[in-house]
Structures are given as C-alpha cells and as structure tokens.
Amino acid sequence: MKNTIYSKRRKKVLSQMQNGVALVPSASMQMRSNDTEFPFRQESNFYYLSGFNEPDALLLLSKNKKSSKTVLFLRKRDLQAEMWVGKRLGVEDACAALGVDEAYDIETLDEKLGELLPGHLNLYLDTFSSNSYLLRAKRTAEKLSHTRNVERSPHNFIHLNTLLEKMRLHKEPYEIEQIKKALSITKQAHHAAMAAAKPGMKEYEIQALIEYIFKKHGSQHDAYGTIVAGGNNANTLHYIENSNLLNAGELMLIDAGCEWNCYASDITRTSPVSGKFSKHQQALYEGILDAQLKIIKAIKPGGSKQKLQAKSERLLTEVMRDLGILKGSMDELIEKKSFKKYYPHGIGHWMGLDVHDTCPYKDENGKDILFEEGMVLTVEPAIYLPLNDPDIPEAFRGIGIRTEDDILLTAKGHENLSHDIAKSVDEVEKICAMDYREFI
Ligand SMILES: [Mn+2]
To answer: pLDDT digits over 257-271, tens only?
Structure first.
C-alpha cells in the first residue's frame, strides 16, 4: 500500500519529464559539534518520492524513447556500522521493499551515472543545490559531454523542484491522514500546556511538557522550534529562547506542532497564564479570533491566499481601530498600511511535508494560484503590541496574540483540521482550569 503511493508519484514525475534523468538526493547526517550529529530528518522531496528514511541515498528516474525506470542508490549493508548506528535496508532488499526497478550501492554512484546518463538530453534536479551527489552528477554529465564516442549526454538542467512543488500542493488522502494524526497529538500538547501554565513557571517547562507529549505519542520530530512566549515575549515573532518567567496576569503564546511520518502540524494558541483573560486581553483576543473565523469561512475553491491576505489586513485594521490602537479612517489606514506595524506577516502558508511547504503562490504567468480541493494552508492572524511603543494605549502594551489553525480545501469549501483545539475564550479558560495530566 505504502509503496503504491510512492511509485504512483514517481510515475507522475516520469510522465511529466521529457527525455532525461531526474535526480533527488536524500538528506545526510549533519554534525552538531565535534563528533555528535543533529537528529536525522529526511529530505522532503526524496521522502515524497521514495518513502525511504535513510541518509546517503539518491533516487534516479530516467526516461527516453525506449524506456523509463527508477533507480535507487543507497548504503550497502555493513554489519559493523549497523552495530553502532542501526540497521540498514541494503541494496539486496531495496527493490522489493521500495518498488524501484534497480538498486545500487551509493559508493558506485559515479561509475553507474556514467552508464545511466548517456542517451538522455535533460537533467532534472534542484539546480540551486550544492548537494554533493548532485554536484557529482553534474561533473559526470560534463565529462560525458567531452567524450566523443558518447552519442549524446544530458546538457540541459531543469529545476525539478518546480514540478515537485506543484505535485505537493495537492494532498492525497494518505497525506491528509498523516496531518490529522499529527494534529491529534498537537491538540493534546496545547491543551496540556494551557492547563499546566501557572505564574512563576519558566517558559521552557511548558516547552518540555509539549515536546514530552509529542514524543510520548510517537511523533518522530517537532515540525519546527517550539515557541512558548510569556507576555511581551510574544511580540518577538520567532521567539525560541523560552527561558523567561510566566507572570501572573500575562498571556502565553504557544506556537508548536509535531510531525507524523514527516507531515507537519502548525498550531498557535494564546492563553492566560493565571487562567482568566483580563478585559483588555479578552477584547483584543476576541477581535483577532473573530477575524480568523471570518477569514476561514471565506476559504473555498477559487479563492486565493492573496485575497485572504487583503481580507486579514482589513479585518485586523478594524480590530485595532475599534480598540483605539490605530487612529484614522479605514481607507486611510489600509492605504498607508498602518496595520504593518502590529501585523507584519502573512495570513498563512501552505503546509505538508514541510511546515512552510515549498509550494508556489503564483503560477508561471505570475497569476495567483487559486484554491483547489486537497490544498492545506494555515490561517494565523495576529496583533503584536510591544511594551515600549508609546503610540499604543497603555492598557494594551506588552500583549501579543496569534491564533493559528490548519485548513484543508475541500470540493465545496474547507475543513478546519484543527477545529477541536480550544480557541474561544470560554473553551480556553475551561482548559486552563483543568489538571494538565488529563491531557497526557
Ligand atoms: Mn504557521
């Protein structure tokens, strides 16, 4: 079943290729310090086409008039190395396990490329990458181009990512399932965090609880660096220090999501450290939430992220004007983009194998990509009001609020995949009053 998904995707890539060879390298282990390494995370495009989770591999798809085939280069079995760092699939079992036509030891790459590249015109690869396998393939292609007895060899470089990014934009049912599974764990973590937070705790204690729940439920990785930001720290957009105190009366912004089989979840919630929103916090929170609900409601096939952006700018400007944070007429505030000072980022992004999925927002003609069934995007309106900004009414200074959900485009509209993560003031305050152990 699993292999069917990947082999279907490989066939789809092949069907869009002219005469040529496509090369997709895996990730490799990265050194953290001296001889210790970062945890391994597979390269998304490689995983998308292979489902194979080992480092030091390369997928090759080739197509010419005569035939097309898929080839995987991977590490050979090595009992000594496997005793130290774990089992390898190995060359012998690769074809049966992964459904590729041929498999070879990655150490024979240069030699095999010398045989596999001739007879093809195009090389499909990440043209911007400095991946060592891709550089070696380019060198082999260059050498072949100087060899007179080879009838022809690849000399056109085509950016493969463009093709893959378009494919990844439309999620298959299997992919939606993985995102839903990731979200079911992320939900527990957010609820536990809301319930556990108390004045006097450190932000990293909440981070530890969130990441404990991710791991406890079998998530292999956090989809991105967890943000736990108390009070004014929420106004630092990518605050990952998480080392300050959570203070009574302040809000706590948490942006955290786990991965499931390399698929991301991306959720932000803002909750009161002491368990109850203050009047001003609630007014701002409900303004942003109301805007978010209206934006989500507008999501349906035919829409676009750019339209949602414009809608979010208007709605959040209204919120800030109503609360006296921005002053002036709506038209003037929109015209001058006054909202940018307190809402400086986009309304959302594609999500999938990457938390910020590398799918296009504009097509080849520069036109906005229109929403279609199967696309997944986040919706994350926010207002950040720094403590040291004298233009902001004093009661609102030091408050930063963001609310983020993951939305699936359906045939007629949308499905909020994270609809069951507490969000209204009542729901959030109810969770805050609970015992966090109920969510572990
Ligand atoms: Mn996001």
So the answer is: 999 999 999 999 999
